[in-house]
Amino acid sequence: MDCGRIAIFGGGSWATAIAKMVLEKVPNIVWYIRRPEQIDEFKRLEHNPSYLTSVRFDVSRITFSSDINTAVDTCDTLIFVTPSPYVKHHLRKLKRKLHDKHIITAIKGIIPDEDLVCSEYFRQIYNVPDENLAVIGGPSHAEEVALGRLTYLTIGSADKDFSRSFADLMGSSYVKTKTSDDVIGIEYSSVLKNVYAIAAGICNGLKYGDNFQSVLISNAVQEMDRFLRAVYPIERVIYDSVYLGDLLVTGYSNFSRNRVFGTMIGRGYSVKNAQIEMEMIAEGYYGTACMKRINKHFHVNMPILDAVYNILYERISPAIEIKLLTDSFR
User: Fold this and answer.
1) Boundaries of each Glycerol-3-phosphate dehydrogenase NAD-dependent C-terminal domain copy (predicted)?
2) Looking at residue 136, what DSSP letter applies?
3) Long-range contacts of range 275-279, CB-CB < 8 Å, 24 or more positions apart?
4) Catalytic residue among 20, 101, 193, 292
5) Is 257 among the annotated ligand-binding positions?
């Protein structure tokens, strides 16, 4: 199937990386960026002035807009890449219905006030049918996409034709793609890996070594598997790149803002000071509280999630909380 005209929503690093990938296959895109001054700078410099500044764009192939309704009206496939805490704020301005659009979410987070993964949010609030929804998952730091380093993406959708078409569009010499029907599993694992990356960062800040980090991650993937089996019990291979691979890269890489955030917490920063110094959103901070609330309905044994929650929201000493966590591991 033809994806039609494509719009990207978001002005951050992952949105910029996705725009780079999409423009390698299509002649032009619409790009919604909230701040008109950022658009003006982008046009002048021919690169995003704030993120991935090394990636050059032919701006004649981009129709920029700071009006979300214009972007939605003129396109068939909408790729949302805004941080999850801001999705509702952007969509409040929307007057156009979305039920006849193809919606792709590249947001690795949960809508905080709703405690819904993004595909569920679009389905429940905007009546977008399952066959029109897709997600992008997998280990994929925007910085490495910018450098043209080999990256593996998984496109999840209930509609196999839709997922295959979009996977083909995203593929290139440095991007390998495959498809999946595990939309909910991909989204929840994307949220949880951010939480576990914060845990890995906290342990790094506390000077725990590689030996312990390996035990932490092996327990994290077991915890992830338990939760996914409880919330959406289908056959899946948890060691696939879209689950374990994404967890590994987010937990270990220096490009991971969640790991960086956790490292700062482990070193003694307050949550507020860490957020101010980073100047970027660590999705796992919000995801931790959302997952804690969601798990009240499922009662899955999730000691790593609980430990990160206690540190971030109950202000328990990271040293004390992680010591308790280590005693529960084998």
Assistant:
1) 182-319
2) E
3) none
4) 193
5) yes
DSSP 8-state symbol, 93: T
User: Average pLDDT per run of 10 along the chain, which is 330 residues long?
Assistant: 92 97 97 97 98 98 97 97 93 93 96 94 96 97 96 98 96 98 98 98 98 97 98 96 98 95 97 90 94 97 98 98 93
- Could you tell me if 4 and 77 are in contact, meaning their C-beta atoms sit under 8 angstroms apart? yes
To the question of pTM greater than 0.85 for the whole model, the response is: yes
* Residue 193 annotated among the catalytic residues of the structure: yes
First to last CA, the chain: 49
- Going along the chain from its start, the domains and CATH numbers come out as 6-181 (3.40.50.720), 185-328 (1.10.1040.10)
Q: Are 7 and 69 in contact (CB under 8 A)?
A: no
List 134's β-bridge partners, or say none: 104, 157
CA dist 330 and 322 (Å) reads 14
Question: With contact defined as beta carbons under 8 Å apart, do 35 and 66 qualify?
Answer: yes
108 annotated binding-site participant? yes
